[in-house]
Write a structure and sequence with these properties.
Layout lengths: L6 E9 L2 E12 L2 E3 L4 E3 L3 E3 L1 E3 L9 E3 L5 E3 L5 E4 L3 E7 L2 E8 L4 E3 L6 E2 L8 E7 L15 E6 L4 E7 L6 E7 L2 H7 L9 E10 L6 E9 L2 E4 L3 E4 L5 E8 L4 E4 L5 E9 L5 E9 L5 E9 L4 E9 L3 H38 L4 H10 L26 H13 L3 H9 L6
Parallel strand pairs: 4-11, 13-19, 21-27
Antiparallel strand pairs: 1-2, 3-6, 5-9, 7-10, 8-9, 10-11, 12-14, 14-17, 15-18, 16-17, 18-19, 20-22, 22-25, 23-26, 24-25, 26-27
């Protein structure tokens, strides 16, 4: 028989299923001291606890032989003093402790809080020391002449390892994740969110030469599913599933927009299950963050929530059309302005000397104006009749052939230039 949880059970013993030839035995299952009948070595520490109880218990821890084993009255932590055997008592429970002499292995527990979420990549280090320093490891530091084991084994596993830089050796403890525990553990109602366990180190060639250290594993939790929730009007509810330690606190920033309600909880301690229903209270677009925290370990998980009403796409398309219309309107106005400006310039035309002469004539000025020198062809207007070209050539040739014509002109201005 094996006791599973606290309570009473009636066992019937019969021959061939004949009720007339049967007998009954009443079995009471109560709490017990963990670990049961341990064997430790001098100098080692061991933490005793009460297991199998469905409620918190209190009492004092005592030992029958203080020269062999000393125990803390309140916490149940015991230390092996010398070789021998003794009985440790808690409440009305007791267990036998055997202390062996000549321990060559010491195992210490880490000082940090141990949990099965966000485990360090190298695991939790349980330092191992040898009194006679008789050990060997391979070059990669993964194998040694000693073994590491976890008790109870369902919470994780351990392996020997050596730090090649410092030369220290350890038992590396790797706890199983909450998802693994939910799938593999046999679920019982009396399970707790924390588990007491021990890591044992023993020599391969002499298994009786061993050492152990006890520690407390506090279960963490995992959220199954995506880390972002996209909700829309077609489905304004969703479910958040939490496995592992379900003693969590869950809240959001805006309580007026979201409601979070617990709809199912299976409180199986370190391997529990909880379902929360998230409802959208207002039909307006928003984003929020749901924060889930575990006070016992400080673990925190955030889930982004986005509620889309579908109006954002319509609004964005309207904004796009508005911007495009404004751009086209500006281009059209600019093109019309350029066309009008070009028309005005073409109508005004260039302002030449003819216009100036006409203005002077109209104003009544009779003084002759100096003709403007032009290069290239001469443009004649209706106000100035064109002189025939042969006549102009004749006049030029006559002037050039007339003797002393050019000197006579200079004489009139300078009398010294005379023959």
């Amino acid at each position: 028989m094996k006791g599973i949880k606290h309570g009473k059970a009636l066992i019937r013993v019969s021959i061939g299923g004949n009720l007339r030839k049967s007998d009954y035995v009443l079995v009471s299952v109560g709490a017990h001291i963990f670990p049961q009948n341990p064997v430790i070595h001098t100098g080692n520490l061991l933490n005793f606890s009460i297991a199998g109880s469905d409620h918190e218990v209190s009492g004092q821890w005592v030992t029958s032989n203080r020269s062999v084993l000393s125990v803390n009255v309140a916490s149940g932590q015991a230390k092996a003093i010398s070789q021998g055997s003794t009985h440790g008592h808690g409440l009305k429970l007791q267990t036998k402790v055997t202390v062996l002499f000549g321990n060559t292995i010491y195992v210490d527990s880490p000082s940090e809080t141990l949990t099965n979420v966000h485990v360090p990549a190298e695991g939790y280090k349980f330092p191992v020391k040898f009194r006679e320093n008789k050990f060997a490891v391979s070059e990669n530091g993964n194998k040694a002449t000693f073994n590491c084991q976890v008790d109870p084994p369902f919470i994780g596993y351990a392996k020997p390892w050596m730090d090649l830089v410092t030369g220290n050796i350890y038992c590396l403890f790797f706890p199983y994740s909450p998802e693994h525990l939910v799938r593999s553990m046999s679920i019982t109602k009396d399970m707790k969110p924390h588990v007491s366990f021990s890591v044992n180190a023993s020599l391969k060639e002499a298994r009786h030469v061993s050492g152990s250290a006890s520690a407390l594993l506090i279960g963490g939790f995992s959220v199954t599913g995506p880390n972002k929730l996209n909700i829309n009007p077609d489905s304004n509810t969703t479910i958040i599933s939490i496995v592992g330690n379900t003693d969590v606190q869950i809240h959001c920033r805006s309580k007026g927009r979201l409601s979070i309600n617990l709809i199912k909880r299976e409180d199986f301690g370190i391997a529990g299950l909880a379902l929360y229903k998230v409802n959208v209270l207002r039909s307006e677009q928003f984003t929020d963050i749901i924060r889930i925290t575990l006070p016992s370990t400080g673990q925190s998980v955030e889930i982004d929530v986005s509620y889309d009403t579908g109006e954002s796409l319509v609004a964005s398309s309207k904004d796009g059309y508005s911007v495009l219309f404004k751009i086209l309107w500006c281009v059209l106005v600019l093109a019309i302005s350029v066309i009008i400006l070009m028309k005005v310039i073409d109508r005004q035309g260039p302002i030449g000397p003819t216009g100036a002469t006409r203005t002077a004539t109209n104003s009544g000025t009779a003084a002759p104006g100096t003709p403007e020198r032009r290069s290239g062809a001469v443009i004649y207007h209706e106000e100035s009749p064109r002189t025939p070209s042969p006549f102009m050539e004749y006049v030029k040739r006559t002037v050039d052939e007339t003797p002393y014509y050019r000197r006579e002109g200079r004489r009139r201005f300078n009398p010294q230039n005379t023959m």
